[in-house]
Each structure stands twice: as structure tokens, then as C-alpha cells.
Amino acid sequence: MSLEILKSIKQTEEEAEKLQKQSLDDSRQVLSEASNQSYKLQEQAIEDAEKEAKEILLKAEKLANDQVKQLQAKVDKECEDIKNQARKKLDKAAEIIMRKVVNIYGNS
Description:
Layout: H1 2-106
């Protein structure tokens, strides 16, 4: 009977050792999968951040272009107003010059 007990103990120890090895293998597998998942999540986060950065840059560029267009329109209008004022003054200056020329030659 003591031989049977020894065999049973030996068998139990072997099963415990198998369970320990299996547990170690399982934990390594879990760690490996967790590491892979972590890497994938990190890559996805980087990709998402790059995409968001591109969108922010595109929006900022569009806003800047819109502001440039608005400023250009304002400057164009101011230039046109200055040209119109200059034309009016040019007409008035030509009129003054004509009067002086007529007065000089008309009075001779």
C-alpha cells in the first residue's frame, strides 16, 4: 500500500509540474498577446494623432486663405477708392492748368 501511495504522490507531483509548465506557457502567451495589442493600440493612436494634426493644419490653412482673400478684397477696394479720388483730383488739376494756360495766353 505504501508503494501505491508513493506512485500516487509521484503522479500528483508530475501533474502539478505539468500544470505549472502550462500556467507558465499560458502566462507567456497572455503577455505576448498583451504586448502585441499594446503595440497595435500605440500605432493606432499615432495614426489617429497624425490624421487629426493634418485636419487641424488643413483647417488653419483654409482659415488663413479666407483671411487673405478678405484682406485682398479690402485692399483692392481701398486701391480703387484711391484711384477714383486721384482721377477726380486729376480732372480738377487739368481744369486748373487749363484755366491758367487760357488766362496766360488769353490775356496776352
